[in-house]
Amino acid sequence: MAWSARWQSTPQAPLWLELGDHSELGDHSEGERVGRGYGGWWTAGAFDAATRRMAGRLRGAGLEPGDRVLWSARSSVPALVAHVAALRAGLVVVPANTTYTVRELAHMVTDVRPAAAIVDPDRRNAVRQASDPSVLVVGPGAELPDADPGPLDTAEPTAPALILYTSGTTGAPKGAVLSHRNLLAATESVRIAWRWTADDRLVHALPLFHAHGLCVGVYGTLLAGASAVLLPGFDPAAVADAASEFEASLFFGVPTMYHRLVRSGRAGDLRRLRLCVSGSAPMSVELHGAMGDALGSTVLERYGMTETLMNLSNPCEGARRPGTVGFPLPGVEARLTDGELSVRGPNVFDGYWERPAANAEVFTEAGGGGRWFRTGDLGADDDGYVVIRGRRTELIISGGYNVYPTEVEDVLITHPGVAEVAVTGSPSEEWGEVVTAWIVADGVPPSVDDLTAFTEATLAPYKRPRRVHVVDELPRNALGKVLRDHLGRWPGG
Questions:
Q1: Stated pTM of the model
Q2: Which of 104, 249, 338, 464 is packed most tightly, with the most Cβ within 10 A?
Q3: How far is residue 429's CA from residue 193's CA, in Å, rounded to a whole number?
């Protein structure tokens, strides 16, 4: 049985509250208008009925189990209806960033060969330009006639459910194929670890096309039988207001969001929440401290990735250590080999879409416990808690010594003239590589000499920046993670 049939809500229980005007996306008749803007509470029963009807429309259009469907939509209930309907019909959903250009979409379309695309109205032209004319392109409301859906939720546990594309930091993005079993295992692990119950209500401000917002926020809400307030995007005031007005208990964000909450002065409004979780990028110890002061508790930092979804987490109950990502979630095993983190468990994907050579590089055969997946992340064991030091491909080797960019960044960000910073290695005939700091200044930018003096007591000489570039902004992905591989060819410089 497909995992998508496993939501635990009673039919009358509230499930989604959609805020913002999405009237152009299709039928909202199941929702009841509420206080502000367009939207309403959808019950689990209404959501079930809507996904059944949508699954019938998709099957009536000729789509068959195993067909790939490109899915690119902003946060809305119609988008979720279409997504879950596709899974229930046995289709394989391929999420795409809503800001992708025609070139970026063309790579995905050429690679995965979708039979259909479900996209917001303003994205249709881009998808059509990137696709073969035979690809069916519809909106989240799926302007298709109703049809008998037939049997639903019949996909085998090992059947593909999602193809999530990696960020492409080591070449062209690759599609990670995740099965229904992978989705259920990863979602169940965080439901257990974070004590997620039907009484919880999540403030959801993450993009749906990313694993954080979709596979953690959406799937977790469904599996726990909980409820969520869907915001059209992230805004500190909107998050704080929603947490209070709708008596929320959970918020999931990325460090950039927490930084903006602190700077806005609204972080303290989340004090009533029982749990705030951060992921998708490292949270600095300094930001941990600022959020802790505002919340009266420590943000729970966890670690996951596209190919495995959730792997490690600080405890929901117990000591949460800033600068660490905790220990393995239920059902997950982890080990460090030559400093590189590997994981295995039912959450780990089976491989990249049509990339046998890439699969051979990342999987290590093992005994009865299954294959180990090499994450490419460098880590260390801090008394049972894992510390992530950065990507193996981002490791700087200067004069034969290893330099971890995140360690240097954590020191430089405390300089009063540094608002944001990223650290990379630059080629050097003498040293092999030298540490290079890319800085967004706060006032007068510091020089190399300034940073050398500033780090004298905190960093060994080989870790100190020898080059400094001042930029207007740092290149980031959709969730705010700095793309170090883009530095040096970034127009913000």
A1: 0.84
A2: 464
A3: 49
